[in-house]
Amino acid sequence: MTTTASAHNLLTDNPELYETRFPDPERLAGRWTEDCLRRHGAGPRVLDMGCGTGRDAARLHAAGRRVTGADLSEAMLAHARVHHPGPEYVRADLHGFDLGRGVYDAVVCLDSALLYCHTNDQLDGFLASCRRALSPGGLLVAEMRNGAYFLGRTDLLDAPAVHTFVWQGVRYRSTTTLTVDRTAQLLRRTRVWTSDGGREPVEQRSAWRLLFPQELRHLLGAHGFEVLELHDGPGPRTEPAWHEGLEPGRTTDADRLHVVARLAGAAPAP
């Protein structure tokens, strides 16, 4: 089988396809986030950084919050404005953004979006931008893969993960292989797409930074954040999944990591 490497991302270039491949009909991610914000007394102004299709931003808007959704993908933003109205949607890069000083009560970063900061400079740029954007005492809520899970475990690496689904009458098949790049501290992902109709397979590559719980705690502290919660579940992508009334866990051993941190009560950094 011959594959063609693509500089584009089939999922982010086609938001409807993304929502078909990763359905969230119960808006679990948005509900979990709202629960975190409410439990820690966050104000109404929320920035959803890496908002994607806008589903979570719209759920937070429906809960009564004033939400700005930010993403680098123009296709995602256009989809969000039409299909998930309510929030304001703007283009911004999570590696470094300036959407105002002290204008948000919370920054939300879900579904491993933070892990697209591959280098220490990019992580520092993201956290410095969050510090600038947040009002004193503002919250950072993030949900991502857990780097510690891959210490000695290979179950997610041993065999490709295959998913098949139908979108617009066409059957798609994605075959995803994960490998650990220990030198770069990255989880590299190779995804091969095939579909009905004899189309040539397309190969796409991406990567997530592997962050470890204590490393993340140190980075947050260095940028003036106090960690309020750091745990592996329950959350919107855990098994079993989070539901209302569940308390945050106390371990960081499973494959997802959830963090809630509060910015120290001082003026935003220059």
From TrEMBL:
The name on file for this protein is Methyltransferase
| PANTHER family, alphabetized | METHYLTRANSFERASE (PTHR43464), SLR1071 PROTEIN (PTHR43464:SF92)
Key word Ubl conjugation present: no
A GO molecular-function annotation: methyltransferase activity
The record's section on InterPro entries has:
Methyltransf_25, SAM-dependent_MTases_sf
Q: Which GO terms describe its biological process?
A: methylation
Gene3D superfamilies listed in its UniProt record: CAC2371-like domains (2.20.130.10), Vaccinia Virus protein VP39 (3.40.50.150)
Q: Which residues form the Methyltransferase domain?
A: 46-138
Provide the alphabetized UniProt keywords. Methyltransferase, Transferase
